[in-house]
Amino acid sequence: MKIGIIGAGNIGANAARLFVKAGHLVTISNSRGGDTLNELVEELGDNAQSANVEAAVDFGDVVFISIPLGKYQSLPTNGFNGKIVIDSNNYYPDRDGFIEELDNGSTTSSELLAAHLPGARVVKGFNTIWFEHLRTLGNTDLPLADRRAIFIAGDDTEAKAVVAGLIEDIGFAAVDTGFLSEGGRSQQPDSLIYNKNLTAVEAADLIRYESLQD
Ligand SMILES: NC(=O)c1ccc[n+]([C@@H]2O[C@H](COP(=O)([O-])OP(=O)(O)OC[C@H]3O[C@@H](n4cnc5c(N)ncnc54)[C@H](OP(=O)(O)O)[C@@H]3O)[C@@H](O)[C@H]2O)c1
Asked: Which end of the chain is more exposed for a tag (fewer CB within 10 A), N or C?
């Protein structure tokens, strides 16, 4: 699969390493231009290249976005129609500035991103896992039930299935928390499942427990 990545930091670069290792093709970008990523691309090998953000969007069947949430409005709005977008961003007001709709709970960060990207099939994912765990805990030798969980949420069932497949390709198991409006909320910083090191079975139990509390 062709994956365009926006953001080449802790999460974006490690996701790129894992996707390439799993046999996918990657174009990775940041705000400063593809030339600043030459060293990373050299490390990643022939299945990776760097580019500007627009070219990474254009390249990907799936576009993986991993930037400080406060910068989301700088992303191009064109080119996302029909594309599956993985949103790994989190809202940290100290870093991102205060965003009223998030502070008053009227929406979620993934819904804000989705509204900015017309036609994008947004799946929230990879946002609850610490980058060091992402880098080290994937294990394709394990049965799905015993793998470390990566939570996903979204409104497009088919898009979620594609993202779940990518998660499995890199040695994790996808656990679905629901639609963006509810799952997106339950995956936010300080939620019950945020940064928890859980197997898929433990994660599914916790989601069930959480829904019983509602
Ligand atoms: N760190 C974690 O363990 C972790 C875990 C889960 C989720 N997250 C979330 O994932 C996102 C990324 O976190 P991170 O730790 O990977 O951040 P990071 O290491 O600071 O990297 C951020 C990346 O985003 C790029 N970027 C910034 N503004 C951009 C823009 N306007 N357009 C394109 N690229 C832009 C930066 O490139 P330039 O340097 O060129 O600007 C950099 O490559 C955040 O929302 C974070 O909350 C982080």
From this structure: C
